[in-house]
Amino acid sequence: MTLFHFGNCIALAYGPYFLTYKYSGLPEYGAFWKCVQVGGMYMLTQLCKMLLLATFFPTMDGPPENASLFIEFIKTTVDFGDLVGLSIVMGRIAGSGHIKVLVTGLGWAAADLLLTRALPLWVGARGLEFDWKYIQLSLDANISLVHHLCVALLLWLWWRSDLATTLRPLVALLLALGVYQPLLPQLMATFLEKTPSGISLLAANATPTVCTAFVALHVFITHNALTKSY
What pLDDT was estimated at residue 29? Predict the structure, then answer.
């Protein structure tokens, strides 16, 4: 039963990443090592963010419940470094637009999964008792995949010189919302005056991610339509 639970969590977490890579056409471009390079850039970016937080915010070490919303806002602002890292690595990938978006988003999401969720799943999901939190952790990995692909698409649109002036503020707003999305659990805890349940946190992550995905897709379709009209 323990092995089955662990295998179920691993398949639920890693399966969508494998299917996305296999059926998106990336194997035809030999994009595996490009995804690995994106993962290396992810690790370098996280290291720079950690050094920045340790240098300028050394007094923020403490339990989350004691941290104010303003402090969490400042810490989350450092996540704009992810946009810088994504922009750098996207500019170094040769290929058409959809290949850049897929390689960058998938590689970044896979590295995030490996570094933030692989160890908890390996240690916790093999325990003697079944726990729903590891299923929720696996589902959250799927939400993260969609989130990073959306951010990569929005960044690609942002750096397009032919992006319509009317669409640029919307793209910037969506990118900012993507950066500050991790603040939602803190906001829920503040307004509800209690720690949200696992299902509530999952819904809080999934809802804005799905909405952003639909809006980003609409912006992408609109951009293509405007480009072809000219």
Answer: 83
